[in-house]
Amino acid sequence: LIDMLERDVICNDLNVKLEDIADLDVAKNLLQEAVLLPLMIPDFFKGIRRPWKGVLMFGPPGTGKTLLAKAIASTGKSKFFNISASSLASKWRGES
Predict the structure, then answer these.
(1) What is the pLDDT of residues 73-87, one digit of tens each?
(2) H helices then E strands: how many in the chain?
(3) Closest to 49 (Cα-Cα) out of 31, 33, 27, 32
(4) Could you give the CA distance from residue 1 to residue 46 in angstroms, rounded to a whole number?
(5) Which of 8, 16, 45, 91 is the most exposed place for a label (fewest CB within 10 A)?
(6) From the centroid of its chain, how far is CA 26?
(7) Distance (Å, rounded) from C-alpha 21 to C-alpha 52?
(8) What is the C-alpha to C-alpha distance for residues 77 and 40, in angstroms, rounded to an integer?
């Protein structure tokens, strides 16, 4: 199980910056506010200014959702888990 996670799910070599992504300025600014700022200045986000609980990105394939998430993870120096349904499920019954 651990080998499968390290091989299929965890991405370590991201090297994607927000500046590499063309357009999507509104989405980049929102993600910086939601994810990066609470990591950089955690003392500011206490009490009523607590950080967001999560971010839901949806849309058709090819619109940059995964690239934005990789850029945020790379900028925040955190792990990126790229999980898809096929990496969690197995075609053999009872194995997943």
Answers:
(1) 888 888 888 777 776
(2) 5, 2
(3) 33
(4) 37
(5) 91
(6) 17
(7) 23
(8) 11
Total-model pTM: 0.76
CA dist 69 and 55 (Å) reads 10
**Residues, the chain:** 96
Per-residue model confidence (pLDDT) at position 54: 87
Give me the residue label for tokens 């063309």: 22
Quick one: the chain helix, strand, coil %, rounded to 5? 45, 5, 50
Q: How far apart are CA 13 and CA 80, in angstroms?
A: 10
How many other CB atoms are there within 10 angstroms of residue 79's CB atom? 11
The pLDDT value recorded for residue 31 is: 93
C-beta separation of 14 from 75 below 8 A = no
